[in-house]
Specification:
Length: about 230
């Protein structure tokens, strides 16, 4: 419990550092320590962690005579964090409007087509791969969409666990969005896919059980036939 509390405090302090840098554009360690009422040693520690995460960058700044000092600014990755709340609101409103004007089947088809688009981007990489290689590539594809996933095999059955859900907040109001990763997994593996647990139902993780079909050597050409 103590570890969790410390981690929470550290994350809160780092969030405050990011917010302060964002408000001022560029700041120094001394300025951050003064504005946040923490020691310069603590600021250095948190800035090192933020730099390791790719969220903060430093540049040398010289004012008059004397040694230059480092000024810290946010990276593009850090700046993308701040509008996330507003993007969520926009996404929620868009889905609200779509569900008012389209039947449920059309919404599900829309998410399936989005999954098809993702698979199409990886079509060349998928072609001719073994089932194991396709599972590794699937984990990579899910990672690019914001999921942290792992898989394992027991006999002929494969299970895929998603340890987080990048759409959790959105899915709480619009659970139809789960159709996208379900469809993605099914299309990549050309297999029967069953979702056994879901975070929207209170589970810790989303788990899929995958049973390969008799002809399951994912025929990419069957998904995207040549014209």
């Amino acid at each position: 419990m103590l570890y969790l509390c410390r981690a929470h405090v550290m994350n809160t302090t780092r969030d405050r550092i990011l917010q302060t840098i964002k408000a001022h554009g560029q700041t120094t360690i001394a300025d951050l320590a003064e504005m946040l009422s923490i020691s310069t040693i603590s600021v250095r520690h948190h800035l090192s962690a933020l730099q390791a995460e790719g969220l903060v960058a430093s540049t040398e700044v010289r004012h008059g005579v004397g040694r230059p000092h480092l000024a810290y600014s946010l990276t593009e990755a850090a700046r993308e964090r701040f509008p996330a709340k507003h993007a969520l609101r926009l996404s929620t409103r868009l889905l609200d409007e779509l569900k008012l004007s389209l039947p449920a089947e059309a919404i599900e088809s829309m998410f399936a087509r989005m999954a098809e688009g993702i698979v199409a981007e990886y079509a060349a990489k998928l072609e001719g791969k073994s089932p194991e290689a396709k599972m590794e590539l699937l984990v990579e594809m899910l990672g690019a969409e914001g999921f942290m996933a792992r898989w394992n095999r027991t006999g002929e059955t494969i299970s895929l666990t998603e340890y987080n859900c990048p759409y959790l907040r959105l899915g709480q109001k619009h659970p139809e969005i789960c159709a996208m990763d379900h469809s993605l997994i099914s299309q990549v593996l050309a297999a029967d896919v069953q979702k056994t647990t879901c975070v929207l139902d209170g589970a810790e993780h989303c788990v899929y059980v995958i049973t390969p079909n008799q002809t399951s050597t994912i025929a990419v050409n069957s998904l995207f036939p040549e014209s």
